[in-house]
Amino acid sequence: MPLGGIYVHIPFCLRKCFYCDFYSTADLSLKPAFLEALLTEIAASDPGPLVFDTIYFGGGTPSVLSLPEVARILGALFARLHFQEPVEITLEANPGTVALESLKGLRSTGVNRLNIGVQSFQDEFLARLGRVHSAAQAQEALSAARRAGFGELGLDLIYGLPGQRRQAWLTDLRRALAHQPEHLSCYMLTLEPGTALAECHRLGRFRPAPEARVAELFMATSEFLAGCGYLHYEISNFARCGPAGCQDARVSRHNSKYWSHAPYLGFGPAAHSYLPPKRFWNHRDVTRYVADLRAGRRPQAGEEVLDREQHMMEAILLGLRTAAGIEVMGFKRRFGVDFIEVFGAAVSDLTSQGLLSLTAERCAATRRGMLYLDTVTAALTAATFV
């Protein structure tokens, strides 16, 4: 079995951003009870002989944790689970919640990869997103991360905002590259049900950018970053190529597990786990999460056992999100069927449209295919399984 990943969901934010549908709360008074529940959940976990090599603190805003709290969580994980060195330990941080000294402290706890939620380097767009930081704070957080010794630095940006033109977006990318990040995540702005942004849209107070402009920005992002030495290795993710070229690009080892069907174990409210063939997830409520663990119950909200057909389709959907695509022989070894025999007609049609690229070894989405991945996956989903 491949090496697994650990995800720890920290469900606290200083304020909820307008677009975000990840589970979080601004009630920081719940933090002590949450921490004790989290440590209980970790201590009770039993993934058998599985060995891990990544830990990812997501949220929410994990940088609201104190240094002793981060250290306690890491100590509990290393005491309970089996790890193989070197362990990639990533923590998401928001500008305005970190400073040089706190970042130095994070490095001392063992965190070796920082992912900063910048979203934009322009105050106008930050205000529209409901972010609590300014463009100046974003610049300072990135500079402080380097001064604190982080050699693995990633940042998140969002495009497709109303009024955002190509030049404004390229300005954000250039400001990001001034810090020479090892990793960039560039996300299209989406209207998620239940968010403040979706409600503003319903009331007519917010109008998304036209689809044609968002498509233009996607293509511009991929082309620009490729020209600057970054590998577009997943729809929204770019890794800086190394001295030997893009074969040693600085990809996120943890996130790559999700796209390659590697096992992962999640802790915290709303966290998901995948221990083949089972996927399970926790309650999306910190109060219920704490109550269950205090009562000696697992805080699990649901589970599913994936059958062969579901695994096959997920291998296709997840594989085509990545530049590596689907390894044809690997697909046959795993599922006992020939990928081309099963999906050949659909693949041929999509290839003629310039959406897929097919070789004897791999089937992968083109840059345009990544943009229209829903069309690609719908066509493949309609194909008949052997």
What are its keywords?
2 domains; alpha/beta; nine-stranded mixed sheet; 15 helices; TIM Barrel; 386 residues; three-stranded antiparallel sheet; globular
How is this structure best described in words?
The structure is a single chain. This protein is an alpha/beta fold. It folds into two domains: 4-258, TIM Barrel (Alpha-Beta Barrel); 320-381, Winged helix-like DNA-binding domain superfamily/Winged helix DNA-binding domain (Arc Repressor Mutant, subunit A), CATH 1.10.10. It has helices at residues 31-44, 67-80, 100-109, 123-129, 135-147, 166-177, 196-202, 211-227, 253-259, 286-294, 308-319, 328-335, 339-352, 367-371, 373-381, and strands at residues 4-10, 51-59, 82-93, 113-119, 153-159, 183-188, 230-234, 237-240, 264-267, 272-275, 278-282, 300-305, 326-327, 356-358, 362-365. The protein has a nine-stranded mixed beta sheet, sandwiched between helices. It has a three-stranded antiparallel beta sheet with strand order 10-11-12, with no helix packed on it. It has a three-stranded antiparallel beta sheet with strand order 13-15-14. A hairpin with a 3-residue loop joins strand 14 and strand 15 (362-365). Helix 1 (31-44) packs parallel to helix 2 and helix 2 packs parallel to helix 3 (100-109). The radius of gyration is 21 Å and the shape is globular. The model has no long low-confidence stretch (mean pLDDT 93).
